[in-house]
Specification:
Elements (H helix, E strand, L loop, with lengths): L3 H14 L11 E7 L3 E9 L5 E11 L12 E6 L5 E6 L7 E9 L5 E10 L2 E8 L2 E6 L6 E9 L4 E11 L2 E6 L5 E6 L4 E8 L5 E9 L4 E8 L2 E7 L8 E7 L5 E3 L5 E2 L5 E6 L5 E6 L4 E7 L6 E9 L6 E7 L2 E6 L9 E7 L5 E3 L11 E7 L18 H9 L22 H9 L7
Antiparallel strand pairs: 1-2, 1-29, 2-3, 4-5, 5-6, 6-7, 8-9, 9-10, 10-11, 12-13, 13-14, 14-15, 16-17, 17-18, 18-19, 18-20, 21-22, 22-23, 23-24, 25-26, 26-27, 27-28
Helix pairs in contact: 2-3
Length: 443
């Protein structure tokens, strides 16, 4: 695993610090929203250095004996983790009211245990959500009888209050949301009439400005933004439209403009593509399917966005049992939401290899909740390692060559090559950081 050294270091840090302090998980972790009709809950699991999972905690957000009983904490439908790793936002689809639903905010401790901070009543239904920053949450509101919107909320960690900021109409049935990897731009996937992808600027206080909208002849289910080395695209599942084999591609840019990817829709050998997620390096697209419950991998052409099926697949089982998949580094996590047929449910861990291969890491692990669904992932930030440009926890000739190869290049503020001054330029100041820490090992 490419992240093995970093995983091991995270475990060492936790063993020194002790567990239970709130702020963020000190270890790589995954969080699963259990979408049970009679019980909603959130499960946390630690990601071990070998890619296997260990149960950490589960917290119940709502229980009832019948769906006829209103309980807004059931049906944990969506989940997102704040950029600083401190908070989880969970959107519920409990059906307890034709007007209102709930968002639950939870805090994450250093050992990945959870506690509920507060609950908030919001308009039906917060179908999907994403943090734009540590204090701005964007939500895709889906409704069959009311307005479908992108809505933003501001989060005040000091007071524990989530406040409405802004909303804009986003289509006819807005079921998914994602964000640009570097810009304050949110994208909504809508399936109200065919398919629609819309883009919006999200201001630092949650203000919304519409940018663009692109319509399709196919559904645009569960969009996923993929950064293929500077070329940013949005892929989505076409569901049962276009013969049940379509993967929809959308090109975008740093301004949020949208256009159909050349060659889209792409054809999947699976049945009813329902979601799309990109690998960390942007070279592979992982597509989940509804009817045949498979995950299939596709190579992404970085220049054109075209997809080529790799032949690699994993079959979760029964139709509809594949709920979600998420990527963290070279790991892929997949939820199975039912025990029907095979008697198991929970979350799988895989290592994504060269050519889109999927290697299972241990057995499926039960989330101990009903209907394991959406997943949020967390990788702790790397500890400070001055002079380390490639994340291998060493300062050596690789780092020196990286600096010299980009000498006087404007690599941009925030680049791992911009070691000094935060000026975006690789120069003698950055070189001195490498030389001053030569052969240092951050262990």
């Amino acid at each position: 695993m490419r992240n093995a050294a970093r995983y091991a270091l995270s475990f060492a840090v936790l063993s020194l610090a002790g567990g239970g302090c709130f702020g963020q998980s000190a270890l790589p972790a995954v969080f699963i929203a259990n979408n049970g009709n009679l019980e909603g809950s959130i499960t946390s699991m630690i990601v071990n250095p070998d890619g296997t999972l260990s149960f950490a905690d589960r917290i119940i957000t709502g229980m009832r004996t019948s769906t006829a009983i209103p309980e807004f904490g059931c049906n944990a439908r969506s989940i997102a983790i704040s950029p600083n790793g401190q908070y989880l936002a969970v959107g519920h689809a409990s059906g307890s009211s034709s007007v209102n639903e709930r968002i639950t905010i939870l805090e994450v401790a250093s050992d990945a245990s959870l506690s509920v901070v507060n609950v908030f009543t919001v308009p039906v239904t917060p179908f999907d959500l994403v943090w734009m920053s540590d204090d701005v949450l964007a939500v895709a509101r889906a409704s069959t009888s009311s307005t479908n919107e992108i809505r933003t909320y501001t989060w005040n960690a000091g007071t524990g209050v989530l406040s409405f900021a802004a909303s804009l109409v986003s289509g006819g049935f807005s079921t998914s949301i994602d964000r640009h990897p570097t810009q304050p731009i949110a994208y909504i996937g809508d399936t109200g009439s065919g398919g629609l992808v819309s883009s919006f600027v999200v201001g630092p206080a949650g203000a919304l400005t519409p940018i663009d909208a692109q319509a399709y002849g196919q559904f645009t289910l569960d969009i996923g933004v993929v950064d293929s080395g500077g070329s940013v695209r949005i892929y989505s599942g076409g569901g049962i439209s276009s013969g049940g084999t379509a993967i929809v591609g959308t090109d975008t840019d740093n301004s949020g403009n949208l256009s159909i990817t050349g060659g889209s829709p792409f054809v999947s050998p699976g049945s009813s593509p329902k979601l799309a997620r990109g690998s960390a390096d942007g070279k592979t697209l992982l597509v989940g399917h509804g009817t045949d419950a498979t995950v299939r991998t596709f190579a992404i052409d970085a220049d054109t966005g075209a997809l080529t099926y790799t032949g690699n697949t994993f079959d979760v089982g029964l139709q509809g049992s594949l709920d979600d998949l998420q990527v963290m580094g070279d790991l892929v996590f997949i939820t199975d939401n039912t025990t029907a047929i095979d008697g198991v449910r929970g979350i799988y861990s895989f290592t994504l290899g060269a050519g889109g291969s999927l290697t299972m890491n241990g057995a499926i692990l039960d989330t101990q909740g009903i209907s394991p669904g959406k997943i949020a992932t967390w990788m702790p930030p790397a500890p400070p390692c001055p002079g380390d440009t490639n994340g291998d926890l060493m300062v050596d000739v690789d780092d020196l060559n990286a600096i010299l190869s980009n000498w006087l290049v404007n690599v941009g503020v925030g680049s791992p090559l911009d070691l000094a001054n935060n000026d975006g330029i690789v120069n003698v100041d950055d070189l001195n950081i490498v030389l001053g820490n030569w052969q240092a090992a951050c262990t």
